[in-house]
């Protein structure tokens, strides 16, 4: 029997599984199986249709309830491959399904975390935030539209997983690594430029030598390295978070207190 003859699921069944996985599937997390229960919930209705026999259904669900953890955005990719195998091979595919889930969640997490979990919100959020700071409503509109597009991306990932499955990682692993490296370079470039343009830190310190006044900001920093203080601030925050493991909330409160004190004594000032 060929694959086409083994089609059991309708387009509605596939869309339902993809939507459940995209909106809720990764939100049900526990310390035992992490995303396992959410994944099982997303695939539950599909497996019920594939396995009318209760015993077969229980065996399949036991596999789906096992430990699972990867980037939420790419879960539909694995779900699609999982469903395709069970639709084709039935209960005989369970060991292969277990292997596919275990082998794919690591590599896809590496790609998904770096591109969709870190670089994408960092780059797009920075651009949207910068526009918002300039009073442009497009900043918020762009951010909302891009997040809506991510939902459609998840649905597309399901279709790709159902049609391609493991081949996406095995055949295209090299290209995925190149794409990840290129995206990392682009992300660092964007973040680096935003440090100089979006972060505003100025000092009001002046030195007087007789009748001569030396403004530290205008005559030293702006002449040599205009974004010196913003870069220094970012390095300090990074050091606290990465090396000292200080929480971001403590850092925000600390920066507010520091700015108030420094402003009161004239160490920091508004933009000249």
UniProtKB/TrEMBL annotation:
The keyword DNA damage does not apply. Keywords: Membrane, Transmembrane, Transmembrane helix. It comes from Anaerococcus prevotii ACS-065-V-Col13. The chain crosses the membrane at residues 108-132, 138-157, 178-203, 223-241, 248-271. One of its GO terms (cellular component) is plasma membrane. This is PTS system mannose/fructose/sorbose family IID component. It holds the Pfam family EIID-AGA. The keyword Transmembrane helix applies. GO terms for biological process: phosphoenolpyruvate-dependent sugar phosphotransferase system.
């Amino acid at each position: 029997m060929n694959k086409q003859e083994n089609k059991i699921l309708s387009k509605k069944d596939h869309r339902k599984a993809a939507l459940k996985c995209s909106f809720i599937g990764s939100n049900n997390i526990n310390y035992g199986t992490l995303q396992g229960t959410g994944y099982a919930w997303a695939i539950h209705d599909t497996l019920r249709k594939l396995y009318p026999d209760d015993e077969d259904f229980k065996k399949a669900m036991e596999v789906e309830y096992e430990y699972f953890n990867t980037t939420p955005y790419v879960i539909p990719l694995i779900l699609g491959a999982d469903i395709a195998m069970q639709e084709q091979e039935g209960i005989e595919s369970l060991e292969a399904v277990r292997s596919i889930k275990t082998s794919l969640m690591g590599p896809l997490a590496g790609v998904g975390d770096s591109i969709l979990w870190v670089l994408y919100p960092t780059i797009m959020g920075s651009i949207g935030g910068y526009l918002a700071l300039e009073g442009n409503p497009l900043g918020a509109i762009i951010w909302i539209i891009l997040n809506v597009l991510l939902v459609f991306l998840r649905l597309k990932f399901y279709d790709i997983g159902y049609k391609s499955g493991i081949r996406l990682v095995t055949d295209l692993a090299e290209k995925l690594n190149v794409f990840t490296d290129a995206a990392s370079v682009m992300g660092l470039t964007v973040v680096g430029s935003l440090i100089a343009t979006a972060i505003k830190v100025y000092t009001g310190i002046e030195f007087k030598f007789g009748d001569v006044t030396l403004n530290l900001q205008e005559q030293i920093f702006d002449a040599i390295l205009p974004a010196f203080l913003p870069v220094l601030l970012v390095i300090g925050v990074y050091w606290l978070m990465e090396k000292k493991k200080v929480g971001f909330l403590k850092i925000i409160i600390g920066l507010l207190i520091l700015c108030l004190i420094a402003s009161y004594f004239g160490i920091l000032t508004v933009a000249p």
